[in-house]
Design brief:
alpha+beta, 122 residues, 5-stranded mixed β-sheet
């Protein structure tokens, strides 16, 4: 089950650039990156791609199918979402939606050996 869940999430991450391009109507695509030292691979989304992602069903699918203990969230220090230490009290649509709502906000997503990492950037 865990392998299938990560396969679904990996496919979602891989398709984000295509989805962003299709929705925004531009030729841009998510910028892939690899960190071989830690075995991580992911995508950096632009603001427009993050908005397209926030308007898609992908955040809900991540929320529904990704095991809670396999998702790592990095909120910006000025995030308005509820948090206490390392705990974030928000669902995935709210986390991605907050980044999409900032003028230059975006998200970076990566699959690591510890799970899926989602970082807010602005």
């Amino acid at each position: 089950m865990r392998v299938r869940t990560f396969a679904i999430i990996a496919a979602a991450c891989a398709g984000l650039g295509l989805a962003g391009s299709a929705v925004t109507g531009t030729a841009s695509a998510a910028t892939p990156f690899v960190i071989p030292q830690i075995g991580a691979a992911g995508v950096e989304l632009t603001h427009d791609e993050t908005q397209a992602l926030a308007d898609s069903p992908v955040p809900v699918l991540i929320e529904r199918y990704a095991p809670r203990n396999a998702v790592i969230i990095g909120l910006k220090s000025d995030s308005t979402l509820a948090q206490n230490g390392n705990s974030v009290y928000a669902d995935m649509p709210a986390i991605i939606g907050e980044a999409a709502g900032h003028p230059d906000g975006s998200v970076d997503m990566a699959l690591t050996p510890k799970g899926l990492v989602i970082l807010q950037v602005w």
